[in-house]
Design a protein that fits this description.
alpha/beta; 5-stranded mixed beta sheet; two-stranded antiparallel sheet; 4 helices; 9 strands
Length: about 220
């Protein structure tokens, strides 16, 4: 039991929250969020080992219900909700957050579109997204999943249908799949720093030796000299 006054409690909360950066790392792709979650869990960097997962509902717009542009489409569609899955955790003083838009669902009769198509599709997308996040979280020993969400001072962020955050593509060799980079006018394997990939081969004399298998390239399969 504490004897702190309400003002002292508020001051303690403000000091605690001040340790969280105003910057946040944002994802719209559940798979990419899960990869970061796994890496941060392996590094024991998730604050209090808590992941918060929730479904966020907001009023849907006419365009979201229609599935395309409409005059005045940014107006609220009566009886419809837009649904997103959010997952968030604190890591190294930053907020890491997934907001994955899943569609709209009918709450009451609106006369805009047949809900038999939209509502089940949204429910399926919700289940699929939650399964990706929660399934991965279940496999991470010691990680506790709770409800609710985490927020920063600039307000809540919820992804919209036309908003997608994509990871930068990795350069990999199309033939062997290793990570590559471009230097000195050639694509090179990050591990060996060589442009050539050698394999074991038999010479005409019958001796085994290393021979050129292919040159690393992100677009040309089995590229040779």
């Amino acid at each position: 039991m504490t004897n702190a006054t309400p003002a002292e409690i508020r001051d303690q909360v403000h000091k605690r929250d001040a340790t969280v950066s105003q910057f946040s790392v944002r994802f719209t792709n559940p798979s990419e969020f899960v990869e970061d979650l796994k890496r941060d869990h392996r590094a024991a960097a998730i604050t209090d080992s808590i992941l918060r997962v929730a479904i966020v509902n907001r009023l849907a717009t006419l365009e979201e219900v229609n599935g395309g542009w409409l005059p005045g489409g940014d107006r609220v569609a009566k009886g419809w909700q837009a649904k997103s899955v959010t997952a968030s955790y604190l890591c190294r003083g930053q907020l890491v957050k997934l907001s994955s838009y899943c569609g709209v669902a009918l709450q009451e009769e609106s006369g805009l579109r047949d809900p038999r198509e939209l509502t089940p599709a949204t429910a399926l997308q919700l289940r699929d997204t939650l399964q990706k996040v929660l399934g991965a979280a279940d496999a991470l020993k010691g990680l506790e999943v709770r409800g609710g969400g985490l927020y920063v001072d600039d307000g809540e962020w919820v992804a919209t249908p036309d908003e997608a955050i994509e990871a930068a593509p990795k350069d990999v060799c199309i033939t062997c799949g290793v990570d590559i980079y471009h230097a000195n006018e050639a694509w090179r394997a990050k591990e060996t720093k060589r442009a050539e990939h050698f394999v074991s081969g038999r010479q005409p004399s019958g001796r085994m030796s290393r021979v050129l298998g292919h040159l690393h390239d992100p677009q040309i399969k089995d590229r040779k000299l």
